[in-house]
Structures are given as structure tokens and as C-alpha cells.
Amino acid sequence: MAKRITKEDIIATATAFTAVTIADAYRRFFAENAPRGYPLAAAGPQNKTLVKLLQRELSKSKILTTGDFGINPDAKEAVSFAILAWAAIKKNPG
After folding, report:
1. d(CA 7, CA 38)
2. Which residues touch 46 (CB under 8 Å, ≥6 apart)?
3. Measured distance CA(61)–CA(38) in Å, rounded
4. Residues ≥6 apart with Cβ < 8 Å to 34
5. Domain total in the chain
């Protein structure tokens, strides 16, 4: 079966599955209080197809990136670790 399925089809299916899974998690997490925008981090915002599919799944809200919050996407990990460090110093769960 794998010989009849192209690599592009496999990637497209995995991307679509990822979008549906992320959208489902957002819906479950936010339940009735859907925000006007959903945050998308990691390499997600660079994957235009994933963003397009997520926007279709979550059509009533906008897909946001760290850039929308004034954080350079390339600095996201550094900022995340700084926040975790701050939480640890303040004895807050991270």
C-alpha cells in the first residue's frame, strides 16, 4: 500500500490530521469561551498549509502567532525558558 501512496499524500494527510487534532484540543480547552484568536507556536506558523487548515477548522477565530504578541518567533524558546525560570523563582508551577 505504501508504494501506491506518494510522499506528498502522506505529508498532506499528516498535516490535515495535525490541524484537526489541534483544533479539537483548542475546542476542548476553551470549551464555551472560545477566544477571538488561538495561539500557534513552535514551527506551526511557518507551515502555511497547517495555518490554512487550522483557520478553516476554527473559522470563527483568528490563528495568532507569537509575533502577534510582540515576541519574535525566533526568540520564542528563549522567552519561554525565561518565563519558566521566573515561575520557578516565584515558586509558581510552570
Report:
1. 30
2. 73
3. 7
4. 27, 60, 61
5. 1
Sign of CA dihedral 86, 88, 92, 94: positive
Domain with 62 in it = 7-89
Domain membership flag for residue 35: yes
**4/53: higher pLDDT:** 53
Asked whether residue 2 is assigned to any structural domain, the reply reads no
What digits encode the pLDDT tens for the residues 21-64?
989 988 888 767 766 777 777 666 678 898 899 989 888 788 88
C-alpha cell recorded at residue 81: 525558558
Which among 81, 85, 65 is positioned nearest to 73, based on CA atoms? 65
